[in-house]
C-alpha cells in the first residue's frame, strides 16, 4: 500500500516482538501503524496494540477472518488484506467498531 510505505518510511519501528507488538510484525508506535505483511500468517495475529489505526496484513495466508479478529482495536481505520487466500470474510469484520473507513481486499 503506497500510503503505508510513505508514512512508515520516515518512522522508526519499535522493537520487533515487543510486548505490545505481535511476534514477526513491525509496530510504528508514533504513528500507530502495524506492519504484518508477508509473514505467512494463517490467522490474524493476537496482541495487536489497541491504538492501531492502520493494520497491514497483505501477502499472508489468511483464509477466514472472523468477527472477533479485531476486537479491542477501537482506533482501527484502515485494514489491508490484499494478496491473501480469503475465502470467508464474516459480515461484521471491521464494522463492529463502526470506524473502519477503508478495507482493502484483493486476492
TrEMBL record:
Name of the protein in its database record: LRRNT domain-containing protein
Organism: Amphiprion ocellaris (Clown anemonefish)
Pfam families the record matches: LRR_8
Gene3D superfamilies (UniProt xref): Ribonuclease Inhibitor
PANTHER family, per database record: ANTIGEN BSP, PUTATIVE-RELATED, CHAOPTIN-RELATED
Keyword list, A-Z: Leucine-rich repeat, Repeat, Signal
GO CC field: plasma membrane
Domain LRRNT: from-to ranges: 20-54
Signal peptide from the UniProt entry: 1-17
UniProt-listed InterPro entries: Leu-rich_rpt, LRR_dom_sf, LRR_TM_domain-containing, LRRNT
Amino acid at each position: 500500500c503506497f500510503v503505508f510505505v510513505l508514512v512508515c518510511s520516515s518512522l522508526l519501528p519499535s522493537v520487533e516482538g515487543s510486548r505490545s507488538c505481535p511476534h514477526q510484525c513491525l509496530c510504528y508506535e508514533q504513528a500507530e501503524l502495524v506492519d504484518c505483511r508477508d509473514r505467512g500468517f494463517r490467522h490474524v495475529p493476537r496482541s495487536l496494540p489497541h491504538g492501531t489505526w492502520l493494520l497491514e496484513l497483505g501477502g499472508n495466508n489468511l483464509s477466514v477472518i472472523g468477527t472477533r479478529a479485531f476486537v479491542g482495536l477501537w482506533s482501527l481505520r484502515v485494514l489491508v488484506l490484499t494478496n491473501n487466500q480469503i475465502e470467508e470474510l464474516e459480515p461484521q469484520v471491521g464494522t463492529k467498531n463502526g470506524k473502519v473507513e477503508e478495507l482493502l481486499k484483493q486476492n
